[in-house]
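Model it.
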Amino acid sequence: MEYFIIITLAGIAIWLSWRLVTLRKGIEALTGALKKEPFPDRDTIPDSTLQDRLGRLTKVVLDTVAEAELQRASEAGYRRIHDVLLDQIEEALLLVDENQVVRFSNRAARKLLSDSNSHVDRPLIEICLDHRIVETVDLALQTGGEMQDQIELSKNSQTLLVGAGPIDPAYKIGTGAWIVIRDITLQLQTEQMRKDFVANASHELRTPLSIISGYLEMMDEEAESGPVKVMRKHTERVSRIVEDMLMISKLESNDESLLSPEIFDIGDCIVGIVEHLQPLLDKNHSKIKIDLPGKNERSFFGDRFYWDQILFNLIENALKQNPRSGINVTVRVVEEKNGRFTVEVIDNGVGIPASDLPEIFKRFYRVDKAHNQSKIKGTGLGLSIVKRAVEAHRGTISVTSFPGKETCFRISVPGPPGNVAKQTPQSERKNA
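Modeled.
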């Protein structure tokens, strides 16, 4: 009996040893096959790996590997497509990680920043043209918001517009920042040439126009001639266009010394303009309502000359651009709780069609659809001057219009330095 048990145990041990050796060989064969390129499939896998339960494990491994390979090939395909598309973009595009090591750059970036074929895994400071690019990215990463800077490179007289912002966590590609760099050298040169031409042409036109206007005035005094009056009228219009073009040219120069800021009463400014326009009000049977805060709450900080131009153009525009008489215009000034001021010029005239609203601040643009039968004349530059003068005061201007009911030009500008907004401002109403 004892011999039988010993023989049985020996047989079991031999069988287990054989199974262990077979399993080990199968695992080694599977491991060796998986290390090879390309990965094996069921037709190329060694037979020893397909036996018994190891065979089931092999099939699971092969299925998982095949699925991973398919996903990797798909991602590689999408990556190639993205690289091709991004290489067609003219702006330089880069992605950097939180340490500002480059993780991606398109062809425009490689061409703009260096002659290297690859920027990947290199510090941004090593490949960029100016340290200010790195500073812009630093600021974007620190604040968590988008930043933009215009950088002039003295070495090659190049001007770059650099934008940067943190990578949105929703994309799940890690922390870091995106960078867009655009060469705007040619654009700025072209714009400067245009501004120089406008300024020079306007200056050259002023002298002959003044001479012609003087002679026409003398002729008009000597004889009541219809043609002379028409000539004078159009000469005055051309003179006003020249003056307006000169003003736009000055406002576009971005010269900080252009403005002579002071603290002044916006109410006095508005009342003066209304008095100046009184003949036009009487002629059109129109009325202007002035809605102002209290005397101590309407101090503006800015250039009084340009504020006269802003308000004069808006009020005159409301009166002249409406062909019917009896137009009511409201000029309202409100001090906001954030210390800013809002100025509104509202009229109940013909209005502006919605399709024209985005264009009205462009030079010489006319809303012909609303006034195609009218005889309204103007330089077409008034609203352009208004927009640029408001922006020179670090403000914004917008317009809303409901044709036939109400048109409102709304200006928002900062208050005087150190201005503290009142929580419950008192208002006074004044009509004119």
